[in-house]
Batch of 4 targets.
Target 1
Amino acid sequence: MSARAPAYLCLALAALLPTASARADALADFYRGKLITFIVGSDPGGSFGPYAQVLAEHMPKYIPESPKIIIKYTGGQSGGLQLANTIQSVMPADGLNMAMTQQTIVLNQVLQPAYAKYDARQWLWLGNMSPVRNMLAIWHKAKATTIEQAKTTEVVIGATGPSSPTYIVPNLLNKFLGTKYKIVTGYKGAADLNLAMERGEIEGRGASWVSVQLAMPEAIADGRIKPVVFASITRDPSAPDVPTLAELMTDPLHKQVAEFLSAESDFGRSVFLPPGVPADRVAMLRAAFEKTMKDKDFLADAARLRLTIEPMSHEELARITVKVVTAPKDVIELAK
């Protein structure tokens, strides 16, 4: 019996080889001469741009026939809701389109169901390049530079739209802690918000802290802009004295809501495909993404651009998505 086992094993392996080879040939045939469109729900001026660019530069080497990845920016207005709706129902599910949008997009599925015509549980996650901690940062010329001062003094905060973290964080502070942040919407993205602060139009802004670190490192160094709170599960290592939203809450239900809203940080710079992409292309693109996260040239370029790389798997993103979408009704209703 033992002498015959290797022969059976060889026969079994031989039977599998043509199938695997056929799959590889089919993928190569499909991607030969093609372009992959990488749609990014932001403007290129924040931290989305560098993350998208470094991924687009290095991921093609792990895709059959190395198709070029071109980036299309759609703006971050309304927290990427319009893009998410497009991804769900319009974007071709062919493996030639992938996306990255605002990290609040899964939360907005339950917070704004009237506008969210998508189900993130159906999306095909490739993975997350890095968690991104959203925050509220105050410009040094603001009339109130701390949360306590903002409880009695109005401070003008710029935001893109009501489903964006630029709006959610100061609004939550107003509702739960009694701050007087006056939120002005309509800005296109982080670059517009930074310019508005420097012009004196606004006195602070939200979004990711990394978008400030990338665009305004000198303003951080000389104290012109400082974070006052982070919408994240853990404190930011670069500002360990700044509390999280949940840490500021004394009411247990408010703390649950803060933790629920802070789950957005886990989605960070996540990349996904629309529902319905053929399974072999999904598996290949997931493997390509994972290999890119370990690629020495990718990591070197990310370090040069001061981008933090803390990869998260597609399985973990799917698990967190389900957890968010099925959160307790009282938490969701109060978060709304």
Target 2
Amino acid sequence: MNTLNDIWDRFKRSGFLIVFGIFSFYFVINAIKGDRGIFRYMYLKGKIEVASQQRARYAARKKDLEKKVAMLSEQSLDLDYLEERARIVLNMVKEGEYVILDGDIDNK
């Protein structure tokens, strides 16, 4: 009988270790590949970096556009800039001026 009790005690201990091992494996896998795991963290960190770079580009573009709008405002009207914008929008030049086009033009 003593041998059966020893076998049963070993089985209980090893069963506990097996169950503990299975639970540990489950939690480790979820810590690595789960919704809040390491791989997800690295993925989201990359997305945050890309979004930060995009935000910086948009901030620079916004600043440039604000500067252009300020030059066309009533309080500080830059006549040279106004004339340049009007010529670009209307596609016109003054009499006696020459237009030099920069780039490849197909003369067909």
Target 3
Amino acid sequence: MNYTERLSNVAVLGAAGKMGSGILLLTALEMVDLSLKPENKGKVFVIHAIDVSSEALVGLMRYIRVQALKAAEKKTVQLRAAYADREDLIDNEEILRQYVDDVMLAIRPSTNLEVAYNSTLIFEAIKEDPELKVKILTQLDKNNPGKPWYFTNTSSIPITQLDEKAGLGGRIIGFHFYNPPAVQKLVEVIKSAHTLPEVEEFALQYAKNLRKVVVPSADFAGFVGNGHFMRDALHGISEAETLAKDVSLPEAIYMVNKVTQDYLVRPMGIFQLIDYVGVDVCQYIMSVMNPFVKDEDLHSDFLDKLIGQGVLGGQYSDGSQKDGILKYEKGRPVGVWNPDAGKYVMITNFQTSGDTRLGALPASFQPWKSVAFAGRKEEMLTAMFNEIKSMDTFGAKLAKTYAKRSKEIGLKLVSDNVAFTEKDVNTVLLTGFFHAYGPINNYLD
């Protein structure tokens, strides 16, 4: 079965979720693009969008239609050539409409898992629960006579564990898209101990066709991305808890969040990032990773307490940020949760004292957006970190400690053979987390 044949009958599990919807969109577009090639004219391509909620599937189809039109508008010239034999399609508007119709016709929304019993390729993007994933994968494989291939989007569960427990015989690979899949360029590809060479070959071809940046990871819980992020988050929480011995916890969280965003030139502070992913999601990922880690404890009582109080973060269906550790207005933090009082404290109550305690930012400071996409990025970063090295303010000290720990985490991922190279670690943080620079660097040495 060649590449095109493998993509002729696809299923996406969890298709209406924030990850599944992006995977469905990208794959549907790839399938329709294949169908428009002369050698594939007349071939039928089907992609089953499977989710437990029929209501969510209705919303999914609306999302796909809007996004398919945007995709079509970006390749009008190519589509004119692809539809050149269609005499009924005259102007660009008709061509774009036809492309969107072709995408929508390829998608079959369903709440029944059984529709995947004839699929040749199955994407799994359901809840990050090992037992649930094994149960679903086992059911599919026992009822699908075609021995399909499985692409799991897990961000933390070892692929070998899923492979062996579901009895898939190496027909599975970790294909970890970053959120949102339609925008994020990074994909972590993780082989199980048994992944068949042809499955990996197909995965790399699929990633290439989607124009993704591929970083391979060893099959160790958390892989490269969460292997760094979870430890980085735990360090941020620890720093805030230590600082809370001298100031209130909300003020400590504000200060650490500010340092990680401004002094370390990141797109958002560490507590914002935890909120973005979801407090409960982070806690669960740590719980999945922890049994596989022997020399450290990946657990946070702080996160446990927040979850017990219903402070979860995450995003609404439109992508806007829910309140979590921080309270948001128009996407900007305006308050910090106080777990002792069970309510948010507005940042204006302690911003002045917190900023005073941190001290002035480096004179060469530029926000992330001004640095990350600048032609002079290396020069700007070098100047700023050279200044931070010479500073004795509390904010500078906190930044230096944090950056050192971030580098240590990256180097340990390499020494533990989770990441294959230092460059891979940096690529994940640069591409998947949009950092302005990789954690393994010499800026503060």
Target 4
Amino acid sequence: MKLIKAIIKPERLDSVKKGLEEIGIYGMTIYEVQGRGEQKGIALQYRGGTIQVDSIPKMEVNIIVKNSEKQKVIDAIIAAAVTGKIGDGRIFILPVEESVRIRTGEVIRDE
């Protein structure tokens, strides 16, 4: 199994959720996060002056998928989140050894 962590622009969240639902992925955990990438933040004009904002609001979407579903999930996220501009986000893929359902104690492994 894989943990897919996607850091995306907040305004792209609904598109990403819809894109994932279209391929049959419904379970996800969503966080409001802040960060910055290589651009080191943004400069905003405010009341005649410039303010440097170095932590930009983003959304983090976490999804656990079978190894066989990994690429279609990545493709769906990219298709829904891309704007072609700096700050579109990043996707991280991490291995997951197993999952345990709390209610039943069922152990799930992806062989």
